Structures are given as C-alpha cells and as structure tokens.
C-alpha cells in the first residue's frame, strides 16, 4: 500500500453516525495517529466513535479543525479491513458509517475498557514487610481475596503502584490477564485426524494445495449429505493453521453448532473462538481483540464474523453455502457468502463453499471455471443415500382432516416397532395457516400487514408471521359476526402433532419449530434428546433440515412436497429442491442394516423438482435451472437489484416511486431495465405500504454507479419514506 500509515497532523476520520456520509477532517492528537486507529471525536455537541481513514487533505486551516477527543484502546483496523469495508460499501451501496458500524459495534469498543490485568493473592507474605505492603495485603484480606485491577488496588490501599508491583515480584501477589486479553488456546493441526476415505483424501489434498499458493481462490466443495465434507474442510483448516494463518468457518445456525465445536475439539485438541449473538460482550471484545492480535487461530461464527479484524486470514469456509440465512436484509443488505469471496480476495485467502445442494450461482461459477469444484458422490462409510419415493396424494385414500397418508403411517409404525425414528417434515409453523369463517368465508388477516393470521394453538393465539402481532382466536367472525363457525384450514406442525398423538398414542413425539423454543439452549437440548433416541417421531419445520446427525433416524416423510413449488419467485424451484434434498438427507446417515427411506407426499409427482429429488439427478436439475436463468438474463448471467420503498401512506409511496421511475435515464444508459413500481411481495408490513422496483442489467454493467446517479435524481421524498437498495436480492 502506497499511502502513508501514520499521520502527525491532520487525519480524515470515518465517523460512526447516521447523518454523516463519509469522512471528516480532524486534528491529530500530539504524537499523531495511525491509519485504522479507532478514536472518539467531537461532532457538534456529541462525541462519536470513528476510525482514521486516511491523511487529512493538507490544505485545510489547522486552526479551524477540532482535535480528536481520545484514542480508543483497541488494535487499529488493518489496511486490508479498510479496503474490505470500502469495497463492500461500494458494492452494496451502503454508506461508510454503516459499514464501519458492522466492523466495530458488536464488541462495544467505545465503552471504557474493563481491567486488562487482575491482581490476586498467590503466595506467602514477603520477606521484607513495610507499612505500605501491609496496607495492600489488608485491602486484599478485607475483600475476601478478590481480584483487583492494579490501579484500583493501589488506590484502595493508599499506596503507589510500585508497591503493588513489588509484591508481585516477591511472589505474594500474582497478575493474570483479564478474560478480554487472554489468548485462545492453540489448536494443534498435527494431532491425528480421522483416517479419510480415498475420495475425502483426494479432496483434502486439493484444498491443501490451494492453500499452499497463499493466494485467493474459491472452491465449491459439493458432497451429498453425509459424505464427510466437514472432515475434508477441517483438513483445509489444519493446513491453514500450519501456515500460521487464521481460519474462519461460517455456519448458518451457529446456535446449533455444539456438535460442530466438539468435532473441532476432537480434531485439534481445543475449542475455536465462537462468534454469534449468544456470546457475552466481554467474550465478543476478547475475540475481536485476539483476532486482530493473531491470538486466535480459528473462529466459528455466524455471518457477522466476517467483519472480525483478523490479522492474517488464510481460509474462509462457508458451510451450507446455499442457506438463505447468509443473506442479511436489514440496514446493510449483503450476502455473507459473496462478501466472504470479496474479503478473501483482498486478504489473499482461500474460500471453501460447502454444500450438498449449492446455489445455482455457485454451480454456474464453478462450471465457468471461476471456482474450482470438488465432488464427493457417496456417503462416508457403509451409509447409503436414502431410497426415495413419492406418494401420489391424488390416489391415496386420505381421511378428512388427516395429513399422513396410509402408506406413510404404515412406514412410521414399522420404524416404531424396530426402535427407529421417523421425521415428518412440514415447513409451516403453528397449527393452521388459515383461520376462516364457515358462514361468510372471510379469512382472518393481520391489521398491520398484508398477511393472514396463523393459529398457534400451543399459545392459544393467532400470530402474524410478518410483524409478530398476536390476537385471541375469535369466537365470532370479525367480518359477519356469526359465532362458533371459525375454523382452522390446512395443516401446520402443531396440527400434525395432534394427528400423530391420535394415531400413534404410544409413540414419543417431539415438535421442532423455531417459535416453540425460547432459547438456543432449549433447542439444543431438544436436539440432544433426539440424538440420544429419546423420541420416536420428530415433527419439524425447516430447522430440522440443517445439518443434524440423528443416528436412529431412518424415515423422512415430507408431508406436503408441493408447498413452495409455486410462486412467481425465480428461486422457488431451487429453494424447494434444496430444502427437500437436505431434509431427505437426514435419513439413514449411520449405515448399518437399515437404509434410509424418504417419502414425498405430492399432488404433482411429475413436477421437475419432485422428479429431480426422486431420481437423484441433481446436476441435471441445476443445469436446467441455469439454462432458465440464462434465458431470462437473471443472476448470475445478469445483474439484479431491488429497491424497496415504504411509507404509511399508500399513495405517497406509489407517487414517489413513479416519479423515480420516470427519471431512470442513468439506468437505461447502462442497458438496464427498470421493472415496476409494483406492490412488494408482502405489500404492507407493520402499517407501512411497500412498493418494489427491480433493476436488471447486463452482467458487466456498472450497476452501482448507475443506481447512485439515479437515486440522486429522485425528487424530494415525502417525510418518513424509507428506501433500501438490495443488490443481488434473494427473491425475484
Ligand atoms: P457432511 O458434512 O458431508 O454431511 P459429515 O462430515 O457430517 O458429512 O460426515 C457424516 C458422518 O460421517 C459424520 O458422522 C462423520 O463423523 C462421519 N465421517 C465422515 N468422514 C469420516 C472419516 N473419515 N472417518 C470417520 N467418520 C467419518
Ligand atoms: Zn402483521
């Protein structure tokens, strides 16, 4: 990097505030400041956090500049991090302050630091006792031997700091690091791993070779469920650790990662750093600092771990890379998978995208040679992929109000008899998706959103899945007033559980649905109980599809395989395919005598998605999806961006959007099309009307620049209008 890293006089500071877009000049404190140094600066009457982003302009009037208020006691952001935040901000059209917040807010760096070192009693009294020393020991005695910050102890005893240090030298007291500064235990890459199967060994070798280049590269590690992808990428982590570089593993459901953490511990002899919303602030600050100081070798985290200030990042693994939870659609709209690739390309690191069901984007990128690709085609060991079957609901004799077909019921019964587990998958939370009046036909909707209210019988409430609003289940119809005719239509997991209880009264059943668990711990415990065989029938929403190993599970029944096949969204087919393949993949993972069986209940056995799932021709499915995307000019063959505008007043937001659409020259100039404005897929949420526009552009077009120019042409927005830009939106 050619720019200087140290500024003795003036500095440009990226300031962490809503109002300021970009950077402001400040006077450096005596002694100057470094690039990336975190600081507190005055801004109007307030003090805000910022980061040194470059040298001051040089021609400013030094007398007019306000000085930096103080330096924050934290490692400075590395030039690499500054480049990452800048480029990600440009890509996602996010103002710099919001980007900086992503990288610095979680650990509360601007809070005064807690004690770094702790003094406590460690040995016998010193040979040479003085009044001052005795005073110090009395204070410790008075406080029951508790630990103190060094300054605090000296102050309480009324002595100077050197007295305390003297006692430390004498061995009477000891100084240890406070947790925030304790390095993480070293992981040992050379402990013996599990002996790998031949295809695993080859895959691991390929990833090791890629790491040895010490350059950027991305590999799509595609392997069927249970093929042992985790063991393979742990070998890549081992190589990275051997090189003395840091490794980051992103998981989609980090709260459920305890099994993964145990596997890491078994492989490397110690636990990695953990980063997700469930860890304490002290721990967050510790991990942030240790990442910057290279005192943590491996971090396992949720998508936001991408913003940790690693000193020397050598590898990023994105496990279940297709998972939609990697997309953040709030404040900063970004895909952690795509930004992992950006971060790695800046850091000279390798990326491994692991999945049994890759996104069409990654599949196409691998096909085009942008990514390397590794395939693991069979399950590890004796386990075979489950046998797949369809149950044609048009020909099944379903009893009224029942959702489990006779064939599926018979299979469940047989499993129960052999002490094996069955999983019934239905991706619908609650009791019933629709509550309607049998007198007038009206359905109960949310007052604030364009959405139906969903009955949750365990809570005895109707719940809006958009805004979370709840109301009692009405006795009289809100529309026609007739009493006693409200009825639940269609199944949710709770209703399915009711059917299971009626039809299999001696079976132990567990419902797994995110709304039924109040903490990650409770969910973890439920999963541990299932793994231990303490249940016969699992009834679950999509949370059961993700990565769990249930050794006794040999049957998966998809209650409604047609759910999600329809819909205007280009991704509908891809999503249902991924979900069904993943959930079917839970069956028969242990091998042994019992091969797994997955049964899809469907009205459309000839639908391309159902046929692909049944035949196991996944590659043909992705190829066909890719062709469709290409023909439609959709990602990754074209660029797409979504603009969502919302306002409490419907005509205000519609008018504004139409005005914007009329001035779309900057978009047309790059060959982009503007679609809409049209009501967003959910046209009203929390009382705000939502309008969407979509921009489709050729692949190489400078979309971000064109959008910025276009937004600058927009007329003055009505107050309270919210506008967000989503580059590479999920739904389209
Ligand atoms: P995937 O991530 O591809 O679904 P996993 O890595 O979870 O697969 O492996 C599936 C199962 O096989 C796990 O129980 C794992 O412990 C086991 N396994 C995979 N590879 C090996 C190996 N080389 N030696 C022993 N067990 C293995
Ligand atoms: Zn609502």
What would you note in describing this structure?
With 732 residues, this protein is an alpha/beta fold. Helix 3 (131-142) packs across helix 4 (150-157), helix 4 (150-157) crosses helix 5 and helix 11 packs across helix 17 (618-632). The chain has 20 helices and 33 strands. Bound molecules: adenosine-5'-diphosphate and zinc ion. Adenosine-5'-diphosphate binds at residues 194-197, 200, 223, 225-231, 380, 549.
Output the keywords.
single chain; 732 residues; alpha/beta; 7-stranded parallel beta sheet; 31% helix; globular; binds adenosine-5'-diphosphate; binds zinc ion
Short description:
By secondary structure, this protein is an alpha/beta fold. Helix 3 (131-142) packs across helix 4 (150-157) and helix 4 (150-157) crosses helix 5 (161-169). The model has no long low-confidence stretch (mean pLDDT 89).
């Amino acid at each position: 990097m050619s720019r200087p890293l140290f500024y003795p006089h003036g500095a440009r500071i990226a300031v962490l505030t809503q109002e300021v877009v970009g950077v402001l000049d400040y006077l450096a404190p005596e002694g100057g400041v470094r690039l990336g140094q975190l600081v507190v600066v005055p801004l109007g009457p307030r003090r805000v956090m910022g980061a040194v982003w470059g040298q001051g302009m040089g021609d400013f009037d030094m007398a007019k500049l306000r000085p930096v208020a103080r330096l924050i006691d934290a490692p400075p952001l590395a030039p690499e991090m500054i480049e990452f935040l800048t480029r990600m901000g440009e890509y996602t059209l996010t103002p710099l302050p919001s980007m900086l917040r992503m990288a610095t807010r979680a650990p509360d760096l601007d809070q005064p630091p807690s004690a770094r070192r702790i003094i406590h009693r460690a040995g016998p009294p010193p040979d040479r006792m003085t009044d001052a020393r005795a005073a110090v020991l009395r204070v410790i005695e008075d406080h029951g031997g508790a630990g103190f910050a060094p300054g605090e102890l000296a102050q309480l005893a009324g002595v100077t700091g050197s007295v305390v240090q003297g006692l430390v030298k004498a061995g009477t007291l000891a100084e240890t690091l406070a947790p925030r500064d304790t390095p993480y235990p070293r992981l040992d890459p050379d402990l013996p791993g599990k002996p790998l199967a031949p295809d695993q060994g080859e895959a691991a070798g390929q990833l090791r070779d890629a790491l040895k280049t010490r350059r950027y590269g991305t590999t799509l590690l595609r392997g069927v469920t249970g093929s042992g992808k985790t063991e393979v990428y742990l070998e890549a982590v081992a190589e990275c650790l051997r090189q003395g570089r840091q490794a980051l593993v992103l998981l989609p459901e980090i709260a459920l990662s305890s099994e993964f953490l145990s596997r890491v511990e078994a492989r490397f002899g110690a636990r990695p750093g953990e980063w997700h919303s469930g860890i304490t602030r002290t721990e967050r600050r510790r991990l942030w600092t240790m990442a910057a100081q290279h005192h943590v070798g491996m971090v396992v985290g949720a998508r936001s771990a991408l913003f940790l200030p690693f000193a020397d990042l050598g590898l990023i693994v994105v496990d279940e890379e297709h998972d939609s939870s990697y997309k953040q659609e709030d404040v900063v709209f970004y895909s952690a998978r795509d930004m992992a690739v950006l971060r790695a390309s800046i850091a000279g690191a390798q990326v491994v995208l692991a999945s049994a069901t890759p996104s069409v984007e990654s599949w196409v990128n691998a096909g085009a040679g942008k990514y390397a690709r590794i395939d693991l085609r069979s399950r590890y060991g004796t386990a075979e992929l489950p046998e797949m079957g369809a149950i044609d609901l048009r020909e099944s004799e379903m009893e009224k109000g029942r959702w489990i077909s006779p064939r599926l019921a018979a299979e469940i019964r047989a499993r129960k008899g052999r002490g094996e587990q069955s999983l019934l998958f239905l991706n619908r939370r609650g009791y019933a998706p629709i509550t309607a009046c049998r007198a007038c036909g009206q359905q109960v909707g949310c007052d604030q959103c364009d959405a139906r209210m969903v009955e949750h019988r365990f809570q005895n409430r109707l719940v809006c899945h958009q805004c979370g609003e709840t109301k009692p289940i009405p006795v009289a119809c809100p529309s026609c007033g007739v009493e006693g005719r409200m009825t639940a239509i269609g199944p949710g997991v709770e209703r399915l559980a009711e059917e299971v209880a009626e039809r299999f009264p001696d079976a132990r059943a567990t419902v797994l649905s995110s709304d039924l668990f109040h903490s990650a711990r409770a969910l973890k415990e439920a999963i541990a109980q299932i793994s231990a065989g303490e249940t016969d029938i699992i009834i679950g929403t999509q949370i059961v599809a993700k990565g769990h190993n249930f050794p006794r599970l040999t049957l998966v029944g998809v209650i409604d395989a047609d759910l999600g096949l329809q819909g205007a969204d280009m991704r509908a087919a891809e999503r249902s395919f991924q979900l069904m393949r993943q959930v079917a993949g839970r069956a028969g993972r242990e091998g042994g005598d019992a091969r797994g069986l997955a049964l899809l209940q469907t009205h459309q056995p000839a639908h391309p998605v159902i046929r692909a799932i049944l035949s196991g021709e996944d590659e043909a499915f992705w190829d066909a999806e890719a062709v469709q995307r290409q023909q439609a000019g959709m990602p990754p063959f074209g660029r797409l961006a979504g603009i969502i505008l919302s306002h409490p007043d419907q005509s205000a937001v519609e008018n504004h959007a139409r005005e914007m659409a009329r001035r779309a020259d900057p978009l047309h100039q790059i060959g982009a099309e503007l679609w809409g404005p049209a009501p967003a897929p959910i046209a009203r949420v929390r009382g705000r009307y939502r309008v969407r526009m979509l921009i489709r552009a050729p692949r190489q077009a400078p979309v971000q620049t064109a959008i910025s120019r276009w937004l600058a042409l927009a007329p003055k927005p009505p107050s309270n209008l919210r506008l967000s830009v989503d580059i590479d939106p999920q739904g389209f």
